[in-house]
Amino acid sequence: MIKLYGIPASRAGRCLWMLEELGIDYESIPTNFATGETHAPEFLEINPNGHIPALVDGDQVFWESMAINLYLAKQYDGGLKPKSDVEESHAVKWSLWAMTEAEPPLMTILLNRVMLPEDKRNAEAADAAEKKLPGPLKVLDAALDGRSCLVGDAFSVADLNVASVLLLTVYAGIDLSEYANVARWFSECKSRPASQRALGK
C-alpha cells in the first residue's frame, strides 16, 4: 500500500488531495516537521532531506510534493494525467511555476502575518512579498481567460498542483477577486470533494 508521510497543514496536503482524487488505498502516516519527527533516523532513511511530504509506493520513494503528484497522476491516472507528452510538459511547467513564482511570496506573507510568533514577524518582508503577487497572479489570470482548466480540456494534475499552492492565499487572507479568472477557477478547484476530504484530514 502507498504510504504518505506528512500532515495536512503542510505541503503533504497537496498529495493527500491527489490521493483522494485518485480514490486509491493509501496510508497516511502523520509526520510533523514542528516536532522534530522529520529528523528522526527512521524518517531520514526515507527522505534524507528531512522534509515532508515523502511517499513510498512499493520500492519507489519520492520527495517533493509536485513530483509526488505528477508521479501519482501518471501511475494511477484517475483522469488526472496529461493526455500527451506535450500536455505532460505543460503540467510540469505549471507545477514548477507554482513553486517558483507563486509560492515564495505567499509563504513569506503567511509566515510573517500568521505563522511566526508576533515578535518574530517581519512586516516589511510581508508587505514586499505582497507587492510581488500581482505579477504571477496576472500571468495565471491570463492563462485562464476563457478556460476552465490549465492544460487540456478537463481538471488535471496541473490544476491540482497550482490550486494547492494558491490555498496559501486562503490562510494568508489574500483577496483574489481582482483576478476574476483565477478566482472563478480557484473556487471550482478547492470546492472539489477530494479537496474537501483532504483538507478535513
Concise structural overview:
With 201 residues, the protein is α+β, with helices and mostly antiparallel strands.
Biggest sheet character: 4 strands, mixed
Strand order of the largest sheet: 2-1-3-4
End-to-end CA span? 19 Å
Question: What is the 3D form?
Answer: globular
Share of helix, binned: 55-70%
Write down the overall mean pLDDT.
96
Q: Number of helix segments?
A: 9
Structural class: alpha+beta
Helix and strand run = EHEHEEHHHHHHH
Radius of gyration from the alpha-carbon trace, in angstroms: 17 Å
Stretches where pLDDT is under 50 for at least 5 consecutive residues are none
Report strand %: 5-15%
Report the count of strand segments: 4
Commentary on this structure:
The chain has 201 residues and is an alpha+beta fold. 56% of the residues lie in helices and 9% in strands. A 4-stranded mixed beta sheet has the order 2-1-3-4, with helices on one face. The mean pLDDT is 96.
For this entry, give a set of tags.
globular; alpha+beta; 4 strands; 4-stranded mixed β-sheet
Topology summary:
Layout: E1 2-6, H1 12-22, E2 26-30, H2 41-44, E3 54-57, E4 60-63, H3 65-76, H4 85-115, H5 123-132, H6 134-143, H7 157-172, H8 180-190, H9 193-199
Parallel strand pairs: 1-2
Antiparallel strand pairs: 1-3, 3-4
